[in-house]
């Protein structure tokens, strides 16, 4: 953080910069991310930058939740040449060369020689650069470990420049990870070693089409904002590639710049002289630097970092997280796609308790139905950090959490996905809304407080701190064992403590033939409050 208090000269939020970018064809998902991350001053700055999407891709099918323009179609994807008129041949190593490096316990590293690719074994600890790229830019290959020579030669020149001609060795997933498994599962082995691959690299070079058209002579502030706006920042695989780098470089049109160098140039000014735009630019760099010490909030930081990222293949999510969190990526790689997320969760010694309140479809497995299938595209939900919330412990029967809650004694009311109740000792009225349908779950007419046994609400920490809004979960209590409530998960909920004025407004808005004010007020439920030290086992 540059400022401990809100920026003194920040402009109030304004939609004009967003409309300007929308008119220029900007992606809705990118706009939603920028609106959340940047101040109005920075949005205005970004809206005036020339669009540099090198591929000219369309964002017509993108939504606020998801950018689809970078997704890969297996049927039509092809490797691209560096120029439209080029007809050079694809080159790459033999399968035996890749296998030899993997069988020695290392991973393949490449160098170019006389129009061909040679493989060097990482076990000899050479100095090399790892390449991070977005596959939709054309440097991937779904059918072999080859790329057009022009692409490899271009990368080779970039690597030489950032290493000052000391090393021409580099690693690129398209070439160095076997494109399919064999009887020894060597592709799985290579993926399992990808954390080492990025950690041991002397540097990681980001090559993204929307950055390679930006001059290196642009200001460091513009460079950082360009990085924050890039498609590279919104792809799943690139998260761990950037986070694990010893030294992270970004390739621009006529040279590369290191992230540390860009930040240092912005921070040369005294703190009081740094503008809001510059402060926002530096925060983009901090989104990588926070992963250098993740022991306290490891999973929370990873979850929040996935906020705006996407992938062509959903099953890759748990695999990328396993690499970032230093778990058994090889095991995840060998697990069927639909089972990968719960397998990943089972590897963690503890979990963020607030994960059970995250939006999304739930995992359809006993003991995991409280957990979302994905941690991407989360509708703005952010995992709280540093709130002193005890971690959750996952066991065979479910997840153990410590949260306050309500034991419900509901009464049937006409609007079945909302319940109103009063709490003993509290003059306010609580509105509990079912969020299950938005997670692909059931309406309360099928599975709600009125038709399950012993309904209760597990409540997040905010209500315990006398705040008015919080997420929660509807559960049914089976029994109590030594102070632990043994429960079954039903749906995610939102809880709001209504003032009398708010309650009148809610009643007025619900006034119709099915839900009259007199009906609702006559059928308010009652809830017993449970202490913040209450332990729950949720299956």
* Spatial order of the strands forming the largest sheet: 12-15-16-17-14-13-18
Please state the overall shape, judged from the principal axes of the Cα atoms. globular
Number of helices: 19
**Percent range for β-strand residues:** 15-25%
Q: Which bin fits the share of residues in helices?
A: 25-40%
How many strands, what sense, and barrel or not for the largest sheet?
7 strands, mixed, barrel
Q: Mean pLDDT, as a whole number?
A: 87
Number of strands: 19
End-to-end separation in angstroms reads 39 Å
Secondary-structure class? alpha+beta
Quaternary arrangement of the chains shown? Answer: single chain
Low-confidence stretches: 1-9
- Which radius of gyration do the C-alpha atoms yield? 26 Å
């Amino acid at each position: 953080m540059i400022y401990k208090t809100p920026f003194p000269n920040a402009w109030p939020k304004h939609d004009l910069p967003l409309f300007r970018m929308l008119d220029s064809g900007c992606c809705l998902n990118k706009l939603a991310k920028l609106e959340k991350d940047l101040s109005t001053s920075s949005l205005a700055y970004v809206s005036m930058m020339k669009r540099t999407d090198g591929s000219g891709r369309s964002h017509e099918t993108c939504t606020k939740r998801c950018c689809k323009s970078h997704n890969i179609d297996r049927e039509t994807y092809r490797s691209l040449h560096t120029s439209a008129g080029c007809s050079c041949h694809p080159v790459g190593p033999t399968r035996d060369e890749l296998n030899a490096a993997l069988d020695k316990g290392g991973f393949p590293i490449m160098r170019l020689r006389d129009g061909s690719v040679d493989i060097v074994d990482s076990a000899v600890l050479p100095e090399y650069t790892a390449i991070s790229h977005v596959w939709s830019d054309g440097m991937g290959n779904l059918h072999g470990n080859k790329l057009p020579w022009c692409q490899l030669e271009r990368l080779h020149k970039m690597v030489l420049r950032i290493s000052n001609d000391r090393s021409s060795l580099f690693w690129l997933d398209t070439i160095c990870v076997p494109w399919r498994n064999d009887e020894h599962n060597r592709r799985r082995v290579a993926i399992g070693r990808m954390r080492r691959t990025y950690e041991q690299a002397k540097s990681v070079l980001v090559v993204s089409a929307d950055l390679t058209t930006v001059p290196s002579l642009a200001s460091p502030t513009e460079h950082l904002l360009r990085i924050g706006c890039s498609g590279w920042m919104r792809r799943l695989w690139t998260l761990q590639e950037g986070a694990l780098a010893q030294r992270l470089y970004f390739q621009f049109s006529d040279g590369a710049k290191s992230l540390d160098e860009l930040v240092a140039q912005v921070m040369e000014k005294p703190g009081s002289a740094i503008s809001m735009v510059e402060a926002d630019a530096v925060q983009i760099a901090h989104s990588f630097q926070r992963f250098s010490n993740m022991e306290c909030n490891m999973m929370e930081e990873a979850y929040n970092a996935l906020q705006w990222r996407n992938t062509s293949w959903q099953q890759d999510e748990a695999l990328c997280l396993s690499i970032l969190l230093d778990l058994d990526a090889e095991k995840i790689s060998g697990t069927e796609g639909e089972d990968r997320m719960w397998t990943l969760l089972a590897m963690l010694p503890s979990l963020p308790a607030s994960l059970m309140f995250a939006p999304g479809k739930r995992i359809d497995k006993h003991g995991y139905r409280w957990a979302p299938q994905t941690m991407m595209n989360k509708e703005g939900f952010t995992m709280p950090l540093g709130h002193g919330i005890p971690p959750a412990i996952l066991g065979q029967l479910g997840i153990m959490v410590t949260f306050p809650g309500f034991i419900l004694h509901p009464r049937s009311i006409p609007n079945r996905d909302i319940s109103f109740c009063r709490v003993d000792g509290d003059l306010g009225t609580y509105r509990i809304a079912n969020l299950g349908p938005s997670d692909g779950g059931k309406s309360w007419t099928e599975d709600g407080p009125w038709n399950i046994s012993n309904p209760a609400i597990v409540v997040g920490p905010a209500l315990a701190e006398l705040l008015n809004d919080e997420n929660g979960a509807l559960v049914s209590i089976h029994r109590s064992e030594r102070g632990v409530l043994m429960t079954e998960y039903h749906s995610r909920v939102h809880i709001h403590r209504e003032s009398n004025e708010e309650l009148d407004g809610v009643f007025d808005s619900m006034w119709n033939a099915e839900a009259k004010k007199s009906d609702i007020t006559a059928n308010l439920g009652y809830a017993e409050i449970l202490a913040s030290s209450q332990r729950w086992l949720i299956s």
